[in-house]
């Protein structure tokens, strides 16, 4: 399937989810993360959810990471296809950007080469570890600046597409894992 077809399909599937279902599935996803061998790492990048897009609520996962004394890093859009990463603290102020994404106003910047694990937003993924995001390229650009050994983990309410994504680009960065409510995929 083509990326634009998958975007449409999975945006529509998300629209069918109510707030209670999103909350329940998000908690299951956070607990599923315990199965992945990432708990010896130090810096964890995680996206903050766009409620209006019915994205996975990352707060349970953030709470889990903080409970395990991990350094949580959150993104802020900086220019075209570029993000900056800020350490999440109790005093980090947030403001929604033009896409409705909560972003840190300011704080301690963490360079990409320090990040050990990245939790990645997506709309769909296939059994090969290819993912479909919103199509802006922010995460592919960001992941290209991270170390090659940085662990890349997608979060999805839905299972992998059985057919490969047919229009994968050479700059698309594959996932190492994808967490769904039913299964943790390893690629």
From TrEMBL:
Key words, A-Z: ATP-binding, Ligase, Magnesium, Metal-binding, Nucleotide-binding
Entry's Gene Ontology molecular function annotations: 5-formyltetrahydrofolate cyclo-ligase activity; ATP binding; metal ion binding
Amino acids binding substrate: 50, 55
Reactions mediated catalytically: (6S)-5-formyl-5,6,7,8-tetrahydrofolate + ATP = (6R)-5,10-methenyltetrahydrofolate + ADP + phosphate
Matches recorded under InterPro entries: FTHF_cligase, FTHF_cligase-like_sf, NagB/RpiA_transferase-like
Gene3D superfamilies given in the database record: NagB/RpiA/CoA transferase-like
EC number in record: 6.3.3.2
Residues engaged in binding ATP: 3-7, 131-139
Required cofactor names: Mg(2+)
Keyword Cytoplasm set for record: no
Example of a GO biological process term: folic acid-containing compound biosynthetic process
Keyword Ligase tagged: yes
Enzyme class: ligase
Family that this chain belongs to: Belongs to the 5-formyltetrahydrofolate cyclo-ligase family.
Protein name: 5-formyltetrahydrofolate cyclo-ligase
